[in-house]
Amino acid sequence: MADDPGQFRSATIAVLVENEAGVLARVIGLFSGRGYNIESLTVAPVDADRRLSRITIVTSGTEMVIEQIKAQLDRLVPVHKVSDLSLAGPHLVRELALIKVVGLGDHRVEALRLADAFRARVVDATTESFVFEMTGTAEKIDAFCDLMRPIGLAEVSRTGAVAIVRGRSALTV
Amino acid sequence: MSATSPHAATQPLTMSGAEVVLRALKDQGVEVIFGYPGGAVLPIYDAIFQQNAIRHILVRHEQAAVHAAEGYARSTGKVGCVLVTSGPGATNAVTGLLDALMDSIPLVCLTGQVPTHLIGNDAFQEADTTGITRPATKHNYLVKRSEDVARVVHEAFHVARSGRPGPVVIDLPKDILINKAPYVEAPPATQPHRSYRPVTAPDMAQVRKAVALLKQAERPVIYAGGGVINSGPEASRLLGEFAHLTGFPVTNTLMGLGAFPSQDPQFLGMLGMHGTYEANLVMHGCDVMLNMGARFDDRVTGKLSHFAPNAKKIHADIDPSSINKNVKVDVPIVGDAGQILAAMIQVWKEDSQPPMREALAAWWRQIDLWRAKDCLQYVQQGKIIKPQHAVKRLYEITRESGRETYITTEVGQHQMWAAQYFGFEKPNRWMTSGGLGTMGYGLPAAMGVQIAHPDALVIDIAGEASILMNIQEMATLCQYRLPVKVFILNNEYMGMVRQWQELLHGGRYSESYSAALPDFVKLAESFHGVGLRATEESQLDDVIREMLATDRPVIADICVAKDENCFPMIPSGAAHNEMILGPGQEGGVAGVTDEGKVLV
Predict the structure, then answer these.
(1) Which InterPro entries does the record cross-reference, listed alphabetically (chain A) (predicted)?
(2) Whether A111 contacts A156, CB under 8 Å
(3) 8 Å CB contact of A71 and B326
(4) Per DSSP, which regions of B42-174 are E strands?
(5) Do both B331 and B392 map to the same domain?
(6) Hey, is the C-beta of A20 within 8 angstroms of any chain B C-beta?
(7) Over its length of 173 residues, how does chain A's per-residue pLDDT go in tens digits?
């Protein structure tokens, strides 16, 4: 890899795994042990009987490294499928964020106005705080947080990206 | 996951978890377990006591149990089996597990665990064994339900032996071993695993692309590795058939020695850091390279940017993650080496295009010039035994004896000399720690080989430093009357460390001198073995002959030249054509400089 002249790119990788103890540790251990980047990682069961989990990993590297990441993931015993959504065609990427803004007076008015513009919902309010819920791309959430920072951004909780390919093709086992 | 047998609910359970484990081992064909008892695995030891199908070999350290199982596995092609207790038993096994992972050796290691209700409570001899061994195994399991015991054991053997083989750990809490558990048979081979399905049959389109490239090759090379040996003896036979069909030169990796006969005129010797001059220059100069079951290890490629700069590369490997990991290749083929070789032979014969015979003849003329360099020559004169000479005489005398011979090694200079000067004509005869480079591997590995092949000649070629890392296994050898021969090249140095310090660190021999060595003759005798010693060249042959004639464990202490270096050598970070040759090999076809460096 030392001589890999390739350009860095970002990759959104969906992994279908057996929903069993230790499977997330295997995936995370693989990334830390081999020095791959994790920009975000989400995981939850996705089938009716909770035997399958879907892990969405946003990572980056040269083409050779991303190919390695996929091959290394694919050879883990509890891994069913690995799909590089970045290569699979048009796909949707969304993230959910809960954003707490604390303040009084005009700051509250401005916070609500910006939230409206970003289609963020108020899910909790007190006389001196709001919690907004918003979904969107990481860039949209970043932009919203940046605007809220001078107004009184107090706390942010984000899920990391989940993603799915557009159209009728589906990633299943 | 519910894998309970449909019969389990209707039949009364009569077997304990431990008995189910043993039954599953037996059904998986296990004949020998290498292990060491302790509190958490007492139920399994109790079950072992009450049966005769599986033999237990009591080692003296858990690391040795794993290496012994590796030696057993590598010399038979079967899955090796290990049994250790929880906590320190498991952690002591970790080095061996990683060794087996790096060298793709199929093992199943059973570890005891504290009872399920105590897991996570820092109980006595508790360790997070699945956590610790996760990056040291191909896969691991913690069994938390009695109904999973049999299924997990069967699955572990399947995972260990299929695809790219490797070690699998099954962590067994003590209550699971004591409680009654249902037995289920192994699933039929036709029933695929839910998620694990390694590819073994090659894509024929890729095979045809590879053959088309090879047909046009003017300067080809076949670079064959441990994947050929892991595929089984038939793959080695097919490698020979393909090589003879094509007339191509063949080089083997350290792991691949024996996959192609050393006596074959098309064999170039080992390649890589301490490979032969001809093998490395062929790799550097080739126009088409066929990598069959090797993984472009850094000890093989040297400087990646200068590795085989003009070659189209074909890479056949059973592990898709090995492809394009270190070296970008032109034609990848995923599959089992034996199946790929069979397909290539078929396509080669069907393809009407003739190979480049004239160019190949010119290539062989060039290779013969490189061979004429005689890069493994050494000068044995006077009384002091050259280590190369000791290995060469060992090889010649064992050949004369005509006995089936298996060689293991420790790690260091002696290992490289063994690889260079001992010839192997068949696969599964050479056991060495290649990927991890584990000092202390050879003696326990030899033990495992001797268990599998009681009548064969099993020799651990060792260094005086490495051998001390698992010397306690002399007791195991003597207990089970295993007539392993330990052939120590004793130069009173950690020789490879000393060599690097000489060449790269200004001769500052920091901590590499073997001070306060034991008297190896007396050491052997104290373990009830036989000790022999050669201090002069004139004694060497007699000591070797006496060693071979002795039907007991032997340590032969061969006192060799202390400052001998292992050549040829590609310094770390250098290219194949920047090899350092031994003293007295200046000049020749390649224009060697005074420093012994070659630039072709």
Answers:
(1) Acetalactate_synth_ssu, Acetolactate_synth/TF_NikR_C, Acetolactate_synth_ssu_C, ACT-like_dom_sf, ACT_dom, AHAS_ACT, AHAS_small-like_ACT
(2) no
(3) no
(4) 55-58, 80-84, 107-113, 139-142, 167-173
(5) no
(6) yes
(7) 444 557 899 999 999 999 999 999 999 999 999 999 999 999 999 999 999 999 999 999 999 999 999 999 999 999 999 999 989 889 999 999 999 999 999 999 999 999 999 999 999 999 999 999 999 999 999 999 999 999 999 999 999 999 999 999 999 98
In angstroms, what CA-CA distances link B276 with B41, B229, B247, B334?
Answer: 48, 21, 20, 29
Distance from CA of B196 to the nearest CA of A (A): 5
- Each residue of A119-144: pLDDT tens digit? 999 999 999 999 999 999 999 999 99
Q: Does A167 fall in a domain?
A: no
Do A151 and A107 belong to one domain? Answer: yes
What CATH number does residue B475 fall under? 3.40.50.970
For B158, nearest residue in chain A (alpha carbons): A77
Q: Is residue B238 part of a domain?
A: yes
Q: Which two tokens stand for residue A119?
A: 């289609």
Q: Which residues of chain A have a CB within 8 Å of the CB of B319?
A: 75
Full strand arrangement of the beta sheet holding A40-45: A40-45, A52-62, A8-18, A79-84
Handedness of CA B49, B53, B59, B65 (dihedral sign): negative
pLDDT of residue B3: 47
Taking the C-alpha atoms of residue A40 and residue B68, their distance in angstroms, rounded to an integer, is: 43
Q: Which amino acid is at B101?
A: L
What is the end-to-end Cα distance of chain B in Å, rounded? 61
Chain A residues in contact with B305 (beta carbon < 8 A): 2-3
Q: What angle do CA B298, B302, B303 make, to 5 degrees?
A: 110
Contact B484, B450 (CB under 8 A): yes
Q: Kindly determine whether residue A75 and residue B194, on different chains, have CB atoms separated by under 8 Å.
A: no
Residues across chain B: 600
Residues with Cβ < 8 Å from B316, sequence gap 6 or more?
B202, B210, B227, B290, B291, B292, B293, B333, B335, B337, B340
* Angle (nearest 5°) at CA B247 between B396 and B305: 90
Shared domain check, A74 and A96? no
CATH number at residue A81: 3.30.70.260
Range of the domain at B90: 17-178
Instruction: Compute, in degrees rounded to 10, the torsion defined by CA atoms B535, B541, B545, B548.
Output: 70
Task: Write out the H or E segment, with its range, that includes residue B365.
Answer: helix B357-371
Residues A114 and A79 in one domain: no
User: What are the tokens at B82?
Assistant: 């290990």
Number of domains observed in the structure of chain A:
2
The boundaries of the domain holding residue A43 are: 8-88
Number of H helices, E strands in chain B: 21, 18
Residues 135-154 of B with CB under 8 A from A: 135, 138-139, 142, 144
Please tell me the distance from the alpha carbon of residue B137 to that of residue B117, in angstroms, as a whole number: 25
DSSP A85: H
Task: Find the mean pLDDT for residues B26-50.
Answer: 98
Residue B550's SS3 state is coil
Residues in A touching B160 (Cβ below 8 Å): none
Instruction: Tell me the per-residue pLDDT of B189-204, one tens digit each, with 9 for 90 and over.
Output: 889 999 999 999 999 9
Q: Which is catalytic among the residues B356, B447, B496, B547? A: B496
Amino acid at B26: K
B15 is catalytic: no
A60 CB within 8 Å of a chain B CB: no
Question: Are β-strands B312-317 and B405-409 bridged in parallel, bridged antiparallel, or unpaired?
Answer: unpaired
**Which residue of chain B comes nearest to A79, CA vs CA?**
B195
